[in-house]
Each structure stands twice: as C-alpha cells, then as structure tokens.
Specification:
The protein has 235 residues and is mainly alpha-helical. It has eleven helices and two strands; from the N terminus they run αααααββαααααα. It is globular and about 55 Å long. The two termini are 12 Å apart.
Length: 235
C-alpha cells in the first residue's frame, strides 16, 4: 500500500501556501520563508523561467547549492551578475574572477569545473522562442558534477519538466513519517513519489519546495508541524 503522498502535499500547501520557487535575481516578489536574502520568489506565478538568462541562472544555482545553503548561493549569484559573468559564454572566460565570485558557495574549484562542463553543453542546445530546448536527463547526468538530484532540479525548474527532486529534506520527512527505509535508493524513492502525484508540473515544483520548508521546521517543530505529523501518521 502506497503512503498518502498527495495528501501530504495538499496539507503542506494549505499550511504554508505557494512557495514561488525557483527564486530569481531581478524579480520583484515576496519571500514566503524569510530564510534567504533575495525577494526573487514568485508565489503563484508559474510562468518562469521566461528566457534563457533565467534558465541559466537556475542551472548555475542548481550546481552552486550543492553542499551549501541557499543564502550563500544567492551571494554567489549576485556577485556573478555584478561582474557580468552570468552567461554560458562569459562564466568561464575569467577563471580567477568566477572562482572569487563563487568562493562563498564552498568547493569553488570543483564547482567551477562543473560549471565549465555545463556551459559547453548549454551552448550546444537549440532554442525555441526565448528558451533552450530541454536536454535529456541522461545528457545532464553525463556531465561532470551532475548527479540525479542536480539533474532533476535543472529539469524541473529550468526546463519545466515533471521530474521530482529527491533531496536530503525529502528523505528526512519521509523517514520521520515512517514511509521509507533509510537506505532507499534515489530512483526508487523518486519513482514512488511520482507514482502518487498527478501529471501536473505545478505540483512537482510546489511539493519539493514545501517539503524543504516542512523539513527545516521539523528541527524545532511548532504545534502546526506536530499536529500535521500526528494527523498523517495516524492515517
């Protein structure tokens, strides 16, 4: 019997509201979590990304967020933009300057190498209107530094594909609810979640963001989180 995953989504959406991911520079919006410095979240507006610059920003952010907090990633992205490096043709032209911009994100030497590989791939993508055509998941996974979580993040948010992102927050929540074994594989958990969700990109994007918020709050849960845990676990 499958766990009530869609029910969890509905209850989290009711509890926290739309999260407005993926946050973007130069977008005037509200930050529903107050956990980052940018106001680039856009709750209820699912029209992003609207151009290749925004797509690329999401792609870079997906790499920079590996093993660090989003607050640090924001700082790195702002620095890249300030130095006019936030494009696939410019990002790797000045290695020292790019590394200095992303140093705040940690592992900056590794991440620069990852971004260099990604920039080569992106420049080969064809375009349709103002956006790049979606690369295959396998193509992304073949790139240096791009694992399943990073690939699915790019596909879901930069290319608007229904690919659920399994991260540490997802595992934390699902283990707390007693729905999975600790060592369940990425693909097995991904397939389980996707089999319980309707064919709706908005749900894929919102559910991932809502799980992140829920998982963060579980460290010091309020009565709302405790009530939800008790309700879900009692089903």
């Amino acid at each position: 019997m499958k766990p009530p995953i869609l029910n969890l989504f509905n209850k989290l959406l009711n509890l926290y509201g739309a999260q407005g991911w993926w946050p973007l520079l130069n977008i005037e919006g509200s930050n529903p979590t107050k956990s980052g410095s940018l106001q680039g979240y856009h709750p209820g507006d699912y029209s992003y990304p609207r151009n290749r610059q925004q797509q690329f920003q999401i792609i870079v952010g997906a790499v920079l967020t590996q093993n660090t907090s989003w607050v640090q990633v924001e700082r790195g992205l702002v620095s890249l933009q300030k130095n006019e490096l936030l494009s696939p043709t410019k990002l790797t032209q000045n290695q020292d300057l790019t590394k200095a911009c992303i140093r705040v994100c940690g592992y900056y030497n590794q991440k620069f190498d990852y971004l260099k590989s990604i920039c080569k791939m992106v420049q080969k993508l064809t375009t349709k209107g103002d956006l790049w055509v979606t690369p295959s998941r396998q193509e992304l996974l073949s790139l240096k530094g791009v694992g399943p979580e990073t690939a699915d993040t790019m596909l879901c948010y930069a290319f608007s594909q229904k690919q659920f992102i399994v991260d540490a927050y997802t595992r934390r929540v699902f283990q707390r609810l007693g729905w999975i074994e600790p060592k369940i594989s990425y693909n097995k958990l991904k397939n389980l979640i996707e089999s319980c969700l309707p064919d709706d990109l908005i749900i894929y994007q919102e559910f991932h963001a809502l799980i992140v918020e829920f998982a963060k709050r579980l460290k010091v849960p309020t009565s709302s989180e405790n009530d939800l845990l008790n309700e879900i676990c009692g089903q």
